[in-house]
Each structure stands twice: as structure tokens, then as C-alpha cells.
């Protein structure tokens, strides 16, 4: 009869060993996203949330409980064997016990918990929570001792989830087809806004249509009627001195109201100025606050450098947008021979993303044209060939010392 009680105690201890091992793996593999998902599905996550609030105490509770039941199994089983069969080979009994505990109390429950961590965590959370309350004094002593030893080897460097970790999680989600490539790319582009400066995205002043603020609306419309633009920066005396921004529809409105003789200065709105080093994230917030759709970018000397519109920022997130009445021209085009025609003003980060390459050293250039000049250490000329880390660049068109177009032959072609 005594053996029967001991045998029941052994089986109960093995069951608890199974529970503790499964719970350990289930809770340690449970992510914040999974907990949020359980909560959203209105599952009872009270005990899970309470336990995961203090992961150190949770882990200590499980380890203490697991060690107690494993030791208890060994003691009871050895006692039963000795009573029944006498002083037989203890090494054999120890080996068998180790094998049984390893299979029932470690490997099997952990493998099950990996496959069904949410179900295991929900099922065992109330029991583990109650055990945690009972073991609290023991866990406190163990954690206090552990903290003292840990401080000897260095302070706790535990951190919250980082941006790099989030991007890795996003890449895994994309690889597992949880999120499609387009949406993953958009999320990455949003995260990149904080690191992307105005200089790398702006429309350069040489490409900006700008008008003297002293000309009339009637004369202005003749200058811009064939241009695919919505906003026109206006200057006073010098093109470096931007004094305002005029909307195309306001010019039309003045003409339709019979006030076409009014100068642009009369209808110009106060411009919003930003520096070249300003991030797109900051510029977007400025646009939201001021309710403006365009900002004027100034260089470090206070001169006019270029413009950025809300559409430019949106295109950084979703890709190029095209007017249905305008020709759809992409900055990067694949040619029949496997090479690519790339405009010189294409942002360098966009080129690197397109070819899925990273440079060993990031240059102080923001466009492909600037990168070519940096590599050559001079002003690029037509037919220059440049070997880069992502392929060979051939300069195909240069105008007024500006690289307008290139041909890129990727390394893997």
C-alpha cells in the first residue's frame, strides 16, 4: 500500500514536471503580438498578463517548481526500487530515471508547447499563477541572490523592442506570407522617413518652375500653362529670394474674375521654409501643422535650394504616382539587354533598394549623380564608366555639368 502511494506521488510529480516544462516554453515563446491577439479575440488573458508583467518571477517560479518535482521523482522512485528489489545497480536506476524525466518532463512537453504555445499558456496560466503566489517567498530569495551575482558581472542591459528588431520581425512576416511585399515595403519606407533628409528628396531649384512676383496673373498663365505643376514659388528681384507660393487655381480664379492684371505678389501665400538637413518625418509634421502642401528648402547659406510637396513624401512611402494626363516616366527602367536606364536625380537609397544592395561606405551624396561625382572626384562627363558595388554605371547624358541619365549594368547580369 505504501508503494502505491509513492507510485501515485511519482506519477503526479511527473505530471507537474510536464506542466512546468510546457509552461516554461509556452510563456517564453509567447510574443506581445500573440497576447494582443488573444485579448482581441476576447480570450481570458488575465493570468497571462499578470504573469508576463514580471518575467523574472515567472521563470524562477517555473524553475523552482520543476526542480522540486524532478528531485521528488528521483527520491521516490529510488526508494520504491530499493524497498522492492534491494540494493541493485543504482547507476542503472539513475540512467532509467534520467531517460524518463528527459522524455516526459523535458523534450515532449517543450515540443508540444512550441507548436501550441497560446493554448498551453491559456490552459496552465491559472495554475502557474497560484503556484507563483505560494512560491513567492522562495522566489524572492532566489531572485535577490541572483541579482547580487548578476551585478558582479555587469548591470542589467535588458531593452525594449528596438527598431532593428521590428524590421527583422517584418522581414520574417513577409517571408512567411503574413504580409505581402508591397505593404512590407511601405512600412519600411515609413520607418525610413526619419532618416531621409530633405536634400535627398527635394526637387532641385534648377528643375523648379518659379516666377517673379511682379508679373501679372495673365502673363504668369502663359508661362506655366503647359507645365504639369500645381504650386509656383515666386521671388522678388533675385531667384534666391523666395517671397511666396502661388496656387495655380488661384491664378485661374483671378483671371476668371476679371482681375488678371493683379500681380502674383497680391495672391501669394507665405512660404514655409525648412533646411536641407530636415528629416521627411519632421517636414510631414510641419505640413500637417501648417496645413501647407509645399515647403521651400533652403541651403546652409540661406539660399533657395529646392521644394518638397506632400506628393513627394507620399511617393517616398508608396512609390511613384503618375498623373493620368501626364506621361508615366519612371526614374528606373529596365532595358531589353538586361541593363537599367536610371535618371541622375534618382535618390541613391532608391537605387540601392532597387538592386537590394548595401554600400560598405555611405557617401556624402544623396542622388545617383552625386554618387558618380563622388566616385570620380570630378564633374562627370558623357560616356564615363564607373564600377560600383552594385554594378557598372555609364553616364549617357550630361547637361550644364549635371548628370541627367545613366545606364547601370548590375553585377549579377
Provide a descriptive summary of the structure in words.
The protein has 413 residues and is of the alpha+beta class. The chain folds into four domains: 2-152, no CATH class; 163-192; 198-318, Roll (CBS-domain), CATH 3.10.580; 332-410, Uridine Diphospho-n-acetylenolpyruvylglucosamine Reductase, domain 3 (2-Layer Sandwich). It contains 17 helices and twelve strands. The strands form three sheets. It has a five-stranded antiparallel sheet with strand order 8-9-12-11-10, covered by helices on one side. It has a four-stranded mixed sheet with strand order 1-7-6-5. Helix 3 crosses helix 6 (117-134), helix 4 (55-85) runs antiparallel to helix 5 (90-115) and helix 8 packs antiparallel against helix 9. The termini are far apart. The mean pLDDT is 83.
The average pLDDT score comes to 83
In whole angstroms, the N-to-C terminal distance is 80 Å
Number of domains: 4
Order of helices and strands: HHHHHHHHHHEEHEEHHEHEEHEEHHEEE
Number of helices: 17
Are there runs of 5+ residues with pLDDT below 50, and where?
A: none
User: How helix-rich are the residues, as a percent range?
Assistant: 40-55%
Strand adjacency order, main sheet: 8-9-12-11-10
Q: Approximately how much beta-strand content do the residues carry? A: 15-25%
Structural class: alpha+beta
Give a quick account of the main beta sheet: strands, pairing sense, barrel closure.
Answer: 5 strands, antiparallel
Write down the oligomeric state.
single chain
- Total strands: 12
